[in-house]
């Protein structure tokens, strides 16, 4: 039998698993929000990282370093050579197709730098004012490119972050929908399981009622056949019990009192039988008793005990022609449990029962039956 708290525990367990799965999902999204976004931003911005700086930034640095060398006095050949190298590096980083295509100041700036490089290579005299004027346009152009590229990088980063946030919002919403659907499916499964359990329980109750006598609560003829089938091949004892002059009892006291007498006799018989014995009502005032019986002495002792227990009960019977109390007539037989054995045993026990009635009732008789002939 299922304990009452088990369904509640099962519901709590399922709910706990659902909440834990949703919590794990939320922790994952929180992790992405708090740790992945800074990683993405650092990747795009590359602030403080030399390898991530733009080409324009590095070109401007080399250009500034070259200008600083040219402004250093005296300008010997070694200084001019080093300045030439720095300006050449700046020129190579500046001279790319993206800058030429997107920034109009690139062409004039490269021309000015190229002119300066030629003059450096030719050992021309370079005045300070001329140097500043020659490199002012390239410096301004590189700064403009650098700022524009930084703005574009920030815009791309913001768009990427926004797309990622929107994507994660969709993931969160989808996960919530999946969670709700899973919970709904579980509820549907649980309702279906309950309906199936209720249907099975009702079927078992109906089957139990179908095998039960509604008045006395003991088994009926169908239940007796089922129990014989369950004990197939075993030696059994069968008692047919009939209440003497039960019709007269009903006629004198009424059927309600007759029903009460039947229930009282069921209690008396069941109290007198062994635990393995089973009692059945076959109809009217006729009962049957089945029990494991390995010898004739057990069968005789059971009959004796049953009849004497009723005598000791002294249940009044105002219409009994031979006694003031209710009496039994019992026919008994031993048989081997099978369909054929039960049928033959029933016929033999019924014959013994009528022998008791023909002798005046209030007694028992045991029929003999070849158990080997009807064991199949």
From TrEMBL:
<keyword id="KW-1133">Transmembrane helix</keyword>
<protein>
    <recommendedName>
        <fullName>diguanylate cyclase</fullName>
        <ecNumber>2.7.7.65</ecNumber>
    </recommendedName>
</protein>
<dbReference type="InterPro" id="IPR050469">
    <property type="entry name" value="Diguanylate_Cyclase"/>
</dbReference>
<keyword id="KW-0812">Transmembrane</keyword>
<dbReference type="InterPro" id="IPR000160">
    <property type="entry name" value="GGDEF_dom"/>
</dbReference>
<feature type="transmembrane region" description="Helical">
    <location>
        <begin position="12"/>
        <end position="31"/>
    </location>
</feature>
<dbReference type="InterPro" id="IPR029787">
    <property type="entry name" value="Nucleotide_cyclase"/>
</dbReference>
<feature type="domain" description="GGDEF">
    <location>
        <begin position="234"/>
        <end position="369"/>
    </location>
</feature>
<dbReference type="Pfam" id="PF00990">
    <property type="entry name" value="GGDEF"/>
</dbReference>
<feature type="transmembrane region" description="Helical">
    <location>
        <begin position="171"/>
        <end position="188"/>
    </location>
</feature>
<keyword id="KW-0472">Membrane</keyword>
<dbReference type="InterPro" id="IPR043128">
    <property type="entry name" value="Rev_trsase/Diguanyl_cyclase"/>
</dbReference>
<dbReference type="GO" id="GO:1902201">
    <property type="term" value="P:negative regulation of bacterial-type flagellum-dependent cell motility"/>
</dbReference>
<dbReference type="GO" id="GO:0052621">
    <property type="term" value="F:diguanylate cyclase activity"/>
</dbReference>
<dbReference type="GO" id="GO:0005886">
    <property type="term" value="C:plasma membrane"/>
</dbReference>
<dbReference type="GO" id="GO:0043709">
    <property type="term" value="P:cell adhesion involved in single-species biofilm formation"/>
</dbReference>
